[in-house]
Each structure stands twice: as structure tokens, then as C-alpha cells.
Amino acid sequence: METTTAFIGLECVDCGATFDAAEATHQCSECDGILDPQYDYDAIDLDRETLESRPFDSMWRYEDLLPFTRDSAVTMDEGATPLVECPSLAEELGVGRVLLKDEGRNPTGTFKDRGQSLGVTAAVQHGASEVALSSAGNAGQSAAAYAGRAGLESTVYLPSRSGFTNKAMVNVHGGDMNVVGGRIDDAGAAYEEGLEEHDDWYPLQTFVTPYRHEGKKTMLYELLEQLEWDIPDAICYPTGGGVGLVGLYKGATELRTLGLIDDLPPLYAAQASGCAPIVDAYEAGADEHEPVEHPDTICGGLEIPDPGASPWVLEAIRETDGGAIATDDPDILEAGVQVAMQEGLEMTPSSAAAASGAWELADRGEFGSDDTVVILNTGAGNKEADVLRSHLMSQGI
Ligand SMILES: *Cc1c(COP(=O)(O)O)cnc(C)c1O
Ligand SMILES: [Zn+2]
User: Fold this and answer.
1) 83-109+212-394 domain in CATH 3.40.50.1100?
2) Which residue ranges run through the membrane (predicted)?
């Protein structure tokens, strides 16, 4: 495998067992836990000036902190997304600054590309010929794109309620697309059935591959560099399975280990009230979520009723002194529309939960008047333009 100097292997976050990354490809063989890439940080020689001197061209500029070399990467120059100043929002929220990290500018329009770039690179390194996953939509589209680029076959299971763009583009990228009646759990069950019949499939499922959260940690490196290393007072993240939130947390702890920052930025999980297991667990002071029995939200990316990594997500929120907030679908859509009207920026409904959550936190007095608030726009608004437009229709517009 073409691994980087500091990458030493994989460690199970549940039982602590360690594995050679050339052999272990997915979950822990001892306990089925999540595997997390590990590094020898003493072998990484990075300072702020070195990073600044590199072109801001893709997430692979942080190659030293990733498992695989840039030369071996399956990449479309994902990442390096702008952090856009939002003065109107700052005024509305009554804070010093609001900045939107616009992940909609990625190759397939969402931050899922960071995870799939790394996930598909690992698949190639492990000699896979076909990747497979179930997804709410965006991860499946992204996987099909990267698989196509790498010359791998892909099989994707999406629930019937996933968006038209996702379904269409899986096919356009050459993926084998299976639309499953029902919701994400039903798509997951159909995927498991398929997996049993195909032992050559290489799973790109959330947290089943160790590399998706690993790719997403680069969002944190970028936004701190873009803020010239000022630690923001809040990062609001629209949370489904929590892959990105865990990535942000890992990225921040790594920068602290390397001596590049002293404090961790507070991470806030924003969810939709119709499916808010992380918010419920946070408010209850629990270390783990309770599965949501009847999830129902228009935010497909957030409709994850049973997020297996919840202990890690809750740790990220608590260790960074962040928080968790749920808002209703109509408020989320309204926030997405307001951001589009006032700032010009387009947020997909799932992402708009982060804007809506920030609004609600501001209303509750969580922020100070000089605070800097970062909102993660995980996906482009035009992926679900119909959903945003229908919100206007509900208002007679
Ligand atoms: C997948 C997705 C999310 C949720 O991501 P997690 O990191 O798994 O919590 C949020 N927004 C969009 C647009 C997504 O596609
Ligand atoms: Zn384990």
C-alpha cells in the first residue's frame, strides 16, 4: 500500500485492538467496533507557515495527516472549499461574524466527496473491483462518482424518498442503482442482503470503512487555516450519522497534538426535530443515543434514526464544550431560503438545519455579541431545489 510516513495503522475505538491497514479493511474483527486511522504525530513536522505556503487546492494538501499518499489518491480536487463571510446573518443572529463553509462546491455537490475520495482510494489500495453501500443519497452519488473515476464498479442502495438528483447521478456515473421502498433502514437491509451474496463487494458504508470520517476531518484543518487560526466560538454541524462531526473533532485534537492550536473549537450538532437522537441523548446527559422509532424529516441526510457512533459524537460535543439543538422542518426550510435570499448562498435542506440551529441557539442567548459562528453547508442547494421551492409554495408564493 502507498501509505504516508506517519500512518501507523488502525485502532478500534471500542476495544482498542490495533490492526495493520494492509490487512484490516473494515470493522474490528474482535468486536465489530469502528476502526480509526492512527498516526505517529512525532513523525509529522508541520507548522502554520509550511501549511500556508502550500497552494489551497484540495484536501490532499494535508497529505501528511492522511493515510495514503497524494500520488495514489483517487481525487477530483475535492475540499479547499471557501469560507464565506455572511454579514446579514451575523446581524440577524446578533454576533460578530458568521461564516459559511461551503461544501456545496465539491465535485458532486456535498462534503461526502472528502470521505469517498479517501474511501475509494483505500478500495483501490486493497485491490477491490466493486464498491457497495446504502445511503440516504449524497454518499451514494459520491461513491458512484469516485468509483467511476477509479475504474471500479459500484452498487448503491437508496431509499425511495432520496432526491431525484442522487438517483439520476448514480446512474450517470455508471453505478448499479437500487431504489428500495421505505426509508434508510430498508435500504440498509437490502444492502446487507446483497452483501451476503457478493463476497467481492468492498463496503463504503459509513463507519464500516475507517476512511470516511478520516477524509472529513480535513474540513476542520481548512476552516481554521481560513480563520487564520482564530478558534471560532461555535461550529454548527448538521448531524445525521455524525461522520463529519467526529471528523471535525479528530481534526481539532490532531492540530492540538501537533501544537498548532491550544483550544478545541466548540462543536454543535444540529438536527431536525423529527429525528434527533443525538440532541435527545445530549439533553438527557446520556453517553449513547436511543434509536428513534418513527423518524420523519424532510432532511434526508439527517434522517438517521440509529446512529451507531453516537458515543463518539457525544464525546465530541462535550469535550469541545459545544452543544446540540433540534429545530422543526418548516424552520429549517425557512432558514435555507433566508440564507439564499440574504446571502446568495444555496444550502440543501439537510444543511439548512445547521443555519436553523444557529438561529435557534442565538435566540436562546447561547452566543455573545462578538462571537464568530461557523456554519457547515454540507451540500449544495440545487441538489434539492424542488424541496426549497415547495417551502415557498406552502407560503402561497
Ligand atoms: C450525509 C449528510 C449529512 C449528515 O452527515 P453526517 O456526517 O453523517 O452526520 C448532512 N448534510 C448532508 C447534505 C448530507 O449529505
Ligand atoms: Zn474492537
Assistant:
1) yes
2) none
Find the angle CA(241)-CA(222)-CA(91) to the nearest 5 degrees: 85
Q: What's the confidence (pLDDT) of residue 200?
A: 96
Among candidates 282, 207, 283, 268, which has minimal Cα distance to 238?
268
- Please give the backbone phi and psi of residue 317, each rounded to the nearest 5 degrees, phi first: -65, -45
Instruction: Tell me the C-alpha distance between 350 and 278, whole Å.
Output: 15
Distance 42 CA to ligand 1 centre (A): 32
Query: Do 83-109+212-394 and 112-203 agree at the fold level?
Result: yes
Tell me the C-alpha to C-alpha distance, in Å, between residue 310 and each of 51, 152, 231: 32, 32, 25
Query: What top-level class would CATH report for the domain 112-203?
Result: alpha beta
- Would you kindly state where each structural domain of the chain is located, as residue ranges? 83-109+212-394, 112-203
Cα(9) to centroid of ligand 2, in Å?
Answer: 14
Give the pLDDT band (50/70/90) at residue 127.
very high
Q: How many CB atoms lie within 10 A of CB 32?
A: 13
Q: Spell out which residues have Cβ within 5 A of ligand 2, the ion.
A: 12, 14-15, 17, 28, 30-31, 33
**pLDDT per residue as tens digits for the range 144-196:** 999 999 999 999 999 999 999 999 999 999 999 999 999 999 999 999 999 99
